[in-house]
Amino acid sequence: MPADVKEKQMAALTPYYANSPREELERVALIDGSLVAMQLMLVARAYGYDTNPIGGFEREKVAEAFDMDIERYVPVMIVSIGKATDSGYGSYRLSTDETVFWK
Ligand SMILES: Cc1cc2nc3c(=O)[nH]c(=O)nc-3n(C[C@H](O)[C@H](O)[C@H](O)COP(=O)(O)O)c2cc1C
Question: Which of 35, 56, 74, 92 is placed for a possible disulfide with 29 were both Cys, Cβ 3.0 to 4.6 Å?
Answer without folding.
Answer: 74
